Amino acid sequence: MTREAAQTGIGPMALVAVEQRLPVERRIVVDDLAAALLPTPARWLISLMGTRTALRLVTLAERRYPGLWGGMLCRKRFIDDALTEALPHIDAFVNLGAGFDTRAFRLLRDTGVPAWELDQPANIDAKRQRLLRRFGKLPANVTLVAVDFEHLALDAVLAAQGYTRSRRAFFVWEGVTQYLDSATVHATFEMLGRAAAGSRLAFTYVSRDFLEGKVPPGQEALYRRFVARGAIWRFGIDPEAVRALLAGYGWRVIAQPEPEALARRYIAPTGRLLDCMPMERVVLAERV
Ligand SMILES: C[S@@+](CC[C@H](N)C(=O)[O-])C[C@H]1O[C@@H](n2cnc3c(N)ncnc32)[C@H](O)[C@@H]1O
Question: What is the mean pLDDT of residues 175-189?
């Protein structure tokens, strides 16, 4: 199960890298590092793409999994914006299930804010190699931590790597909860419950309805890929229950935009005909 989950680390950043082949005003996310952290064949392939090929790829993806492209890009952009806004008020960044995300090297560059990036050993090793290739050495503010969330106490792992709870941290937990079992999600919320007041959390989840088979029109292929076949997505939350769930761990929801609202905010200005998938939600919260 975790090996299959590890392989999903590439997907979101491959989409971001393809976006960079579009003119800047048509991009949902601007990320000059995305391609550098991909495997070499993907990096080369994407570097050869012109705008037309990139747009054609988006159309093909959209036909197969409507809303997946727009949804992933909008969640990335929402979290980028939330982190940028919070930067003056935080003294740590913790990315849980970071995959090949680039925020620590892009948005924290030159801020001095220390970052901890956690993922499965295979992804952490690959990320370390690609960072070395790109920068020649690991950026000094970033600690890469190999973990399996399902078998390790996160508090202890982070403490062993120099993270202290008294720091006001920005936690990202993006595209991860659906791959975990319920006990691990709740254990992670317990760890987050011990974070310093003023910390922020941006996380995503899949609607529980979807995992239970309530599939919106057009989402059948995605359901078959991630839920029916192999049940790689196995944890969901009821959007109505998010406020109470977070309140139970000492967090206040600041925003939980509807997918349509994200599309209006981030896709409409690009003039592109994309939607956000309806079953994934992104939440921004603050530790009170
Ligand atoms: C869909 S990817 C998202 C990556 C990144 N957060 C992003 O949005 O670009 C899911 C990530 O969660 C990680 N993950 C899933 N289950 C995990 C576990 N049990 N322990 C550690 N990492 C896990 C995977 O290895 C993968 O990198």
Answer: 97
Confidence of residue 229 (pLDDT cuts 50, 70, 90): confident
Between helix 51-64 and helix 68-86 the angle, nearest 10°, is 110
Contact, 7 vs 99, CB < 8 A? no
Predicted confidence band at 14 (pLDDT cuts at 50, 70, 90)?
very high
Q: What is the pTM of this model?
A: 0.97
Ligand 1: atom nearest CA of 99 is 27
Q: Provide the CATH number for the domain around residue 37.
A: 3.40.50.150
**Ligand 1: which residues within 6 Å by Cβ?**
2, 5-6, 8-9, 11-13, 97-99, 101, 119-120, 123, 147-150, 174-176, 179-180
CA of 173 to the centre of ligand 1 (A): 9
Q: What is the chain's percent helix, strand, coil content, to nearest 5?
A: 50, 15, 35
Which domain covers residue 178, as residue numbers?
2-287
Rounded to whole angstroms, how far apart are CA atoms 167 and 198?
9
